[in-house]
Amino acid sequence: MTEALTYFFMSWVDPNLLFLTAAGTFAGIYIGAIPGLSVTMAVSILISFTFKWHVNDALAMISGIYLGGVYGGSRSAILLNIPGAPSAIATGLDGYPLAKRGEAGAAIGLTTIVSVFGGFVGILALAIAAPAVSELALKFAPRDYLMLAVWGILLVGSLSGGSLAKGIFAGALGVLIGSVGLDPMTAESRFTFGSLQLTAGISYVAAMIGFFGVAEVLVQLHEMKLKAVKQDVSKIIPPWALVRKYLPLATRTSAIGVVVGALPGAGGDIAALMAYDHAKRTVKNPSRPFGEGAYEGLVAPESANNAAVPGAYIPMMTLGIPGDAVTAVIIGAMYIHGLKPGPMLMIETPHLFWFQVGALTLANCFLLIFGLTGIKLFARIVETPKPILLPLILVLSAVGAYAINNNPVDVYWMLAFGVIGYFLKMYGFQVGPVILGMILGPMMDKSYRQAMISAEGNIGQFAGEFFTAPLSFIILMALTLTIVSQTQWWKRLRGRA
């Protein structure tokens, strides 16, 4: 135990490691706040510079960028309604209305506190329950991942103004767009219409910038005469009474984030979505209606997506299975440095596990410091006159879309999705479910085929396993409840109750 504590605090006492962790966290926050500059891209670029670094130096900086980047996406989501990362889509649903009310400072301050809280819950789970949670993740069969993806698509009904039909339509549109390109199992072209440009698929980041950035600019053209709202940034740090009020919700949603983050391929975006849905279903008296600036709509997704970061380390460190795209890149970095993530890592180099826990803890502390600074400067973005702000958003959106692959085609897609998103918004559809459909669609497609292969193509056997396997049955019941709870019959029954 003494050796474990020594490696836990190593990153805290070494000035070099302290600086690298701080620099990584700071860079991650501001990279995550820029749409188009993903955390995965930042970590991938960093690894190319760390070939000759000591493994501790590399892991310390990567931990800071990862944790800071997931949090950073909330800033642009709150201020501009353009999520810097998919995990911040749910945050913008209530964060942006708060900014329009002039409460951007309070919104960012509260998200910082609950993000740090969620991070500590995730780190505690990583340190204590890593083997147990990893065993749970191993029990998930392909059919379970299929239902998890379908469940995520159905949950978009909660994000679409209460209309399940509109939510399903938007989610299905995202699944269709995400299916463009080469089939992941047969390498056959799908929906490419003979175009070589489409064989590589459509970047969900370009779509996200278009649906949220360009579409929002087009919507704001209808409100050019409205003056910018003056943001109140005098009280950035939320009062303790407010934080204490939301701690029970943050604890529950952080637990959701840890479990979902530990599921290979799930990640913070699904965790944030499920946490938002949980808050919407369980909070009886929100501060405001959800979607109109409810603080609960900030607490739930932000605590969950940051708790999902240490959660994603659980299968990576103990099983060698990436929890999301970023940990997949980190596994590559560990192999480069001569390490083999998996069960033997915990046996042969347990000190590395505790060093990683210590680095994440330190990065989370820096997240609190850097997250509560620079808010006044960020808040001024919202106060910028629209004739200046809207063209600036368009320029930044174009730069962000081009930076994905250095390909002008992504800019064209961004503009096209911006126009589509504009019409969707005009007719009362939310665009968040479209992006979630693009992200979850490939996972649903792959899991369905794997499940059918394991059932040897027998539909009866495939369907029967949903009722014979306890875990599959539990997820199926949760999925069914989600559908039933959106019907008018269920709402009338609840009203009578």
Please give a handful of descriptors for the protein shown:
single chain; 1% strand; mainly alpha; 2 strands; 73% helix; 497 residues; two-stranded antiparallel ribbon
Protein architecture, described:
This protein has 497 residues and is mainly α. The chain has a domain at 2-140 and 205-398. It is 73% helix and 1% strand. It contains 23 helices and 2 strands. It has a two-stranded antiparallel ribbon. It is globular. The chain starts with a helix and ends with a helix. The model has no long low-confidence stretch (mean pLDDT 78).
Uncertain residue segments: none
First and last CA, distance: 53 Å
Strand tally: 2
Tally the helices: what do you get?
Answer: 23
Radius of gyration: 22 Å
- The ordered H/E elements are HHHHHHHHHEEHHHHHHHHHHHHHH
Widest sheet, order of strands: 1-2
* Helix content percent band: over 70%
**Major β-sheet, in short?**
2 strands, antiparallel
Structural class, please? Answer: mainly alpha
Shape: globular
Average pLDDT rating: 78
Beta percentage is under 5%
Quick description:
The protein is mainly α and 497 residues long. The protein has helices at residues 2-8, 10-13, 15-32, 39-47, 55-80, 89-100, 104-138, 142-155, 164-178, 204-220, 240-261, 268-282, 296-319, 325-336, 343-348, 350-371, 375-383, 386-405, 408-426, 432-454, 459-468, 470-484, 488-496, and strands spanning 181-182, 189-190.
Outline the secondary-structure elements.
Layout: H1 2-8, H2 10-13, H3 15-32, H4 39-47, H5 55-80, H6 89-100, H7 104-138, H8 142-155, H9 164-178, E1 181-182, E2 189-190, H10 204-220, H11 240-261, H12 268-282, H13 296-319, H14 325-336, H15 343-348, H16 350-371, H17 375-383, H18 386-405, H19 408-426, H20 432-454, H21 459-468, H22 470-484, H23 488-496
Antiparallel strand pairs: 1-2
